[in-house]
Amino acid sequence: MTDSIHQFIARSNEALANTQLQQALAKARPGFVKKRQLAVDAVDNFEALRDKAREVRQRSLRDLDIYLAMFESNVRAAGGEVHWAKSTADMQAIVVDIARGASAKTATKGKSMVGEEAEINAALSRAGVTPVETDLGEYILQLAEEPPSHIVAPALHKTRQQIADLFSAAHTLNPRELDTVQAIVDEARQVIRRHFIDADIGITGANILIAETGTAVLCTNEGNGDLTASLPQTHIITTSIDKVVPTWNDASAILRVLARSATGQSITTYTTFYGPRQTYDLDGPDNFHVVLLDNGRAKLLGSDFQEMLHCIKCGACMNHCPVYQAVGGHSYDSVYPGPMGSVLTPLLRGEPDDFGLSQASTFCGRCEAVCPVKIPLPDLLRKLRNVATSRQGKGLSGWLSTLFMTLARYPRLYRLTTGLGLQLVSRFHKKATLRSLPGLGAWQNYRKLPAPQNRSFQSQWNRNKKNRND
Amino acid sequence: MTETILSAIARRLGKPSLSDNRQTLQTRFDALLTTASEDVRPARDKDNQQWFKDQAIANLFDVITIADFHHIPAALQPTTLPIVLSPQSRIHVPQWREAGYTLSNDFHQPALGVVEAVAGIAETGTVVVTSQDVPSSMLFLCEELAIVLSTTDIHGYQEDIWPQIKHGRYRAVHLISGPSRTADVEQTLQVGAHGPKRVYLMLVNRD
Questions:
Q1: Which of A30, A72, A197, A261 registers the highest number of CB atoms within 10 A of its CB?
Q2: How far off is chain A from B43, nearest CA to CA, in Å?
Q3: Residues contacting residue A101 through CB under 8 Å, at least 6 positions apart
């Protein structure tokens, strides 16, 4: 076990003891899984749709340079701007620069995980621009001053009562009851509406970029993304270099598996294809900017981890992960939690603690089984464990594994050592179970290990075989 | 900066850096399109119109079938909301005033917007509206929305309409699949988040 996993374990222990978090997770747990399964069962060829989506992602990455160049060329030809951000600091600087150019005082924001990754809100605030999150989940978290805990449902960890308390404290409205989901949603609609209308700039993410026409696809259910993208004078899209696909047909292949995997819908309520405003458009921003973030993604190309760039950010892996379901997203201390986050965080952020996230897995394989683009997440986690081991040394478990591997290569030595060990244990330990063994303290908090009998299976087999032959 | 990231990508992919020539880029892009495998779509087990209608109802559209554009005002549930019509001529019928509706141009105030879609997609019960036919903000600011669609414009799959849409140079192509909704509070579905709380889908049967 590497040292860096200890941070995750400490946060997980806090999460497991947090009653409100456990209540919220218990409510979310069955919903996502059931809704996805119903959506999958509603089509007769979901496996073929997954294979097609995977093929699109593979093909997109194979010639990523050409598709990004085409995307940029087509956006520019239509009157928009494309900006390249090597780091999150670059993305912050670019967004702030555009905001200053627009003399912006306020910015509405749709949900953008890349925007979260780059901490755009903090950068805007420092520059004197007030950001207002408009996705309900993100708005709740802005009031709570907390990061998201899920990439699709960012406020999944909040109970209804916690949300009602946040609204009561933040909104100067007449006394009212906030005891139903409808009352909470209606209040958010009322409060955020004026921000949509007043905002100087609107910042959204993008789910897909299409090279052939320089188009950005945005999927939402609330309509906040479209209001953010349509009402202000400037629309900025914060996204990453891996989101591009060649054609509209390729985008369809991704859309077919995205919503089914994320929320159990065949398509999100609003799926909009955006570009720069043209002469005959009836409204919309005059300025259209796409900011493309690298932040470590390019270096994954051609590496053992290239397939992680297939990810379409649906959240299915975390919805089906027994570890995520138990401890929630904040335990991962990253914008990207769950299995995909355990792979992506060390690769993109790469802080020493991040590599321990590869231990946050039971290797049950459900993440890979539900991934709409068939990313071999357990395999990538295993590779990251190797990286973590080579970075931090083997530790006790590593040395024990090496010892076992050495013994296993020499059957006679193995039999001799295990035989001696069994005799020793059975001589000094008379109970049926072992309650504490060195190095297995935490594991044995919840489990009993049966005490070994004084003979091994092989020696008993050989003796019985001899008896049978007699 | 462009060169830096794109060059790094090319290097990682084991390729030489791209030239700046647009024509060369287009040629290489076009050549790559031939490497795509066949599209894969969910199977269709009924005709497009029935499929579209079933999916639209599942998306929580209020589906109403009418014989002609003149019947739109009478087919709506009575409402006190003022009516805002998009600038599409077929929905500007005299029956609005005859039915006693108040017509308005202000969809920033609570209103029922009436717009016409250019296409329907049966696969997902989706209607398609472009930013050159309808102001995008109207689609999302109206309290309620009536989207009118001729049944002859219903297609099976997204790919069926892309050829007519993708080179249209629209700022926005909106695929709308029901009223606005959220499940951000305890994963409970609540209709009417930031966009319209109710969406009529008025199918004008042209068969």
A1: A261
A2: 7
A3: none
